[in-house]
Amino acid sequence: MSQFKSQFFNLMVERGFYNQCTNENGFDEYLYVCEKSGKPAVGYLGSDPTGDSLHVGHIVPLMMLRWFQKCGHKPLALVGGATARIGDPSGKDKLRPFLDESTLAHNIEGLKKSFSKFLKFGHGTTDAEMVDNWDWFKNVNYLEFLRDIGTCYSVNRMLTMDSVKTRLEREQPMSFLEFNYMLLQGYDFTVLYRKYGCRAQIAGSDQWGNIVSGTELGRRKYDVELFGFTSPIITDSNGKKMGKSEGNAVWVNEEKLSSYDYYQYFRNIGDAEVGKCLRIYTDLPMDEIKRLETLKDKEINEAKKILAFEATKICRGENEAFSAQETAIKTFEQGIAGGDLPCIELSGIDGLSIIDAFLQIGFVESKGEARRLIKQSGLKLNDKVVSDENYKLSSSDVINGQVKLSQGKKKHGLIKIA
Q1: What is the spatial distance between Cα 245 and Cα 255, in angstroms, rounded to a whole number?
Q2: Who has greater pLDDT, 105 or 348?
Q3: Other CB atoms closer than 10 Å to residue 199's CB: what's the count?
Q4: Residues 6+ apart with CB under 8 A from 416
């Protein structure tokens, strides 16, 4: 039996996306009326362009916006060209580095590419639109902003927000610049309401204070109820925040991470996380997910393969998903090197030390790390354990024009001889 009236709200609860809402019943009723009338609700998700790609940690609210669109509503993808110049203090211990104009422009293009992998953009009623808050902040008069917006905020209330309170409790300095951040994000929400009729902000739970800043500004300034809807922070069974692979971010854009490595991240998810990840990172129907998450022991690997394929298909396209899947099968099930493995090309390898080989392909960050892994039998050359840290490669190590390097059981790469 459905818990809520709207399709979107029920989907969010069933798939594990729902954490908190500023007005549960009010937002549900608003969405229900929109769904029944055929007039889409408008909701937004914002991301500051501090990097040139989103990563797996950003995908949770982005998948929420994807489902929002699938339910017949209109998504707005906001890039914070202005707020990136300030820095969101949420979860941070210090001021974010300032970026120059060319870096910001480059990063904004990268975020647009990330968003477009999950949302359908265009000019239709429910097609997503990209917006940049620099467009309305670049000409704002500071005194007018203080008078019109600053008077709607209580410093006493702002000090209770987690992003501020936590920083003060840690006795970490917070600049007045950062303290202003919630005013800017609150203002974003009201601008989107006035320009697009946007009444919903979708985000991760760490943005709760900034969201409430916007909903309160909407009520005080425009006498309208705006809604905030957040997802939980997704963690593994050990309580570790998901989105990192061996300490590195799992990037959405292919320039930052190969489709094979993206696929392998989901293929190597822990058994306890399979059901959760199928719900959040794929579009599979719930009946299929419930069947897959009941699999045990060796059968759970089949569920992981489906998870990896479906997650990669959404982010990189079906062809890339098939290619990554084929490489994984060749590498792990057939014992041959697949075409999408990490690869470097060299004109020759005679005299190349085994440690330098692993450094060049990027499997270790230092010679010390390589030596430690060799002592632990953690590195392999052509599927044979490397035992001599002073070993030098030669033409006798080349098989079919390439050399296979492996770290552990799941990380493999190739040196191809040009």
Answers
A1: 17
A2: 105
A3: 22
A4: 343, 344, 345, 346, 401, 402
Q: How far apart are CA 354 and CA 406, in angstroms?
A: 12
Q: Has this prediction a pTM greater than 0.90?
A: no
Strand 343-346 relative to strand 411-417, pairing? parallel
The pLDDT of residue 332 is 62
Confidence of residue 349 (pLDDT cuts 50, 70, 90): confident
Query: Which H or E run includes 136?
Result: helix 134-137
- Could you tell me the two tokens for 282? 């794929």
Distance CA 46, CA 184 (A): 12
Q: Is 285 exposed, middle or buried (0-12, 13-18, 19+ CB in 10 A)?
A: exposed
What does the alpha-carbon distance between residue 314 and residue 63 come to, in Å, rounded to a whole number?
A: 10
CA distance 294 to 313: 23
- Domains of the chain, first to last: 7-231 (3.40.50.620), 258-333 (1.10.240.10), 343-417 (3.10.290.10)
Q: pLDDT exceeding 70 applies to what percent of the chain? A: 93
Q: What does residue 399 show for φ and ψ, rounded to 5 degrees?
A: -120, 120
> Beta strand 402-407 with 411-417: parallel, antiparallel or unpaired?
antiparallel
- The answer to whether residues 343 and 388 touch, using CB atoms and an 8 Å cutoff, is no
Cα–Cα distance measured from residue 281 to residue 379, given in angstroms and rounded to the nearest whole number: 32
Smallest CA-to-CA distance from 281 within 299, 253, 307, 258 is with 307
Distance CA 51, CA 88 (A): 14
Pair type for strands 227-231 and 200-204: parallel
| Residue whose entry in the numeric block shows the structure tokens 């509503």 | 73
Distance spanning both ends of the chain, measured CA to CA: 62
DSSP 185-250: HHHHHHHHHHHH---EEEEEGGGHHHHHHHHHHHHHHH----EEEEEPPPB-TTSPBSSEETTEE-
- Which two tokens mark 41? 């609700």
* Tokens standing for residue 87: 């820095």
